[in-house]
Amino acid sequence: EKDFRFDPTAHTDLHFVPNSHGDYLWNNIKFHLQDQYETFATLSHFNLPGKYQFYLCPCPIRSVIWDKRFHVMVDPTRSAIFSIYTTSFNSADPVALIQAALYRHYGYAPPFVTEGMAGYLTMPAFGAKELANARKNLPLDSLLGTNYYLAAAPRVADNSAASFCKYLIDEYKVDRFMEWYRAADDLNARHTLRAVYGKTVSELEKEWLHYLDTISFTTRQFAQAAMQSETMFQYRQMARFREEQLRLSERRGDSLHVLSELGRACLFNGDYENAVKWQGKLVALDTVSDPGKMLTLATYRLMLGQYDSAYATLLRAEQLDSVNPVIAF
User: Fold this and answer.
1) What is the pLDDT of residues 260-314, one digit of tens each?
2) 1 pLDDT band (50/70/90 cuts)?
3) Is 80 helix (H, G, I), strand (E, B) or coil?
4) 179: part of which helix (H) or strand (E)?
5) H or E element that contains 184
6) CA–CA separation, 236 vs 136, rounded Å?
7) Where are the beta strands (DSSP E) in the chain?
8) Separation of alpha carbons 264 and 271, rounded Å
């Protein structure tokens, strides 16, 4: 820890190694952590004083016992969270911070319960709905067993837990969920679930799957999820959310904005072909010829190796803005 420095925020001290990615860009993650924590704290009535120590590690540290599923470590005894934060990888997820807060305020519960509740704000129903539609969801009765849950495909298990816990909280209210949280342990999660809700696991699973089958989402939800994915360097997921947002966009102006964001998402993901595709649609649909959008399209085409079409696009942009030094260059 002597190798770290820190900067304070409202609820955390963000620790980083000098001259690392965390040193220069800790602000990029700060607002995401703070926004998600404050929103969840209101829901869960967090009221204990003190801060959490959040470490932005430039690489896996040997002395830390990492959760290899998500490349984090939550230490509730010290209110500390260790994550990896580099130019190409980011595990500094607010879910880990919220999980630490749950342990601190309410004590231990099985990972299905704590990770599920901590993922309440991650729009988990979307991923769970896709899994259910593809018949790739895991049986709920098995997931309630800690050994099975920890050994299952991490994103599938985590998404299932978060969407099921969100369903219980929304449908039966948070106070009832907290009754289950306090009663559950690694051995009795199935029994206590039935005792608290008065229904069998299969009955609750049937309700949850029906909820997933009938739920719909808004453009605003997809936009927020895309921005969160960008913060976490999850660019493929970012593009997926933007595609869904585009599908639901009804106004022309909204569609043009989403097309621009889709191009960015594909660029970040190294998918230059689709970056050209979406930016090209934006330029074609825009009723006002914008040299800036053409410059972006030309840049994407250069990255794809389409030098002739990139040059032609730059010439069009130059006709519209002959004094722009970037276009001229």
Assistant:
1) 999 999 999 999 999 999 999 999 988 778 888 999 999 999 999 999 999 999 9
2) low
3) strand
4) helix 174-183
5) none
6) 20
7) 5-8, 12-16, 52-57, 72-75, 80-84
8) 10
